[in-house]
Amino acid sequence: MTYEETSAKQRTERFGMSHLSIEVGHLYADDLARTDALKEQMASAAAWVHGTTEALSKRLGGRTPRVSTCYLVDDYFHQDLPDPEHLIAQVSEAAAAAGLRIDYLARESACDRMGPLQLAALVADRIVFEPPPGTNGSRPPVSDLGWLPNGVPTPKPRGIAMGAPLRWIPPSQNSRREHSVFLDVELWNDTPKGRRWSCPMLAAVWQLIRLGVLRDQGKRIGVPEPVESLVPAEHGHVPGQRLGNRFPDRWSEMPPILQLDKKAFPFPAYRTVSVLSTDFLEVEHAVRVICGSVRPDAGALDQIRKSAEREGMSLPEELVDRLSYVFQGPL
Hints:
single chain, 331 residues, alpha/beta, 7-stranded mixed sheet, 15 strands, globular
């Protein structure tokens, strides 16, 4: 009888990649209620999209770069969003007025669960935190605590009666440059209704989906559903289908990732850029801590790296270095 590991039979799915995925915005629910805020953001994002695309074309020797755009809707923390039909029309119209197209629209709740897959839990299981030398192991592991630091926090003082005054020890960042910027990231909290993932954790899942590195036993996760597939229902309302020219009334019935433009370049990309408000700066700092601690599927990483090299592109070894940002001031 012959024994062999299951992983030896696992095949890593291949699929097309864009050179760049640009997230053109992510507004809070109260901002979405202001049409002027959405228009201002799209107008500003359009300038960055056009400039980034032109710069990328020069780096590729004049070749036309494959650039896809996406928009993330926060239906996880906010339940008072406009209905899908209204919001999609609102976003698309604001983008078109700015000379911009939205290729893909995704739901943030899909970063928690996508069909039977619990994506946030999958990513959390792939977090590898390596305690720096000198730590005593008194801090519970990330899997128990739900907090991920980027270094060593200040030790809790141990009081001794009549003893000498205790010396304060500052926190220390693992990969600091002369001075530390210590951060402790909350990944989740447990509530009576179940585990509730933090904004940085869901945003980290979102970035990893955009980079194409999340796999389920080698298979791709997060395949967009074409908007044309949402065909009209003949009799009554069927979840996931359109009524005439209408989308479902509830976001929970929408696909996790919807492809709005059938001519769009692939959703996953070698690198990502996110055009965001400065309100998200702290969140994205936390996202980088999380992504820097995740160990994705090795086969996926190797496959994507080789694919990029065949196109004359070199990718950073560290996954987190494939993420870039444009932070804008208040709208």
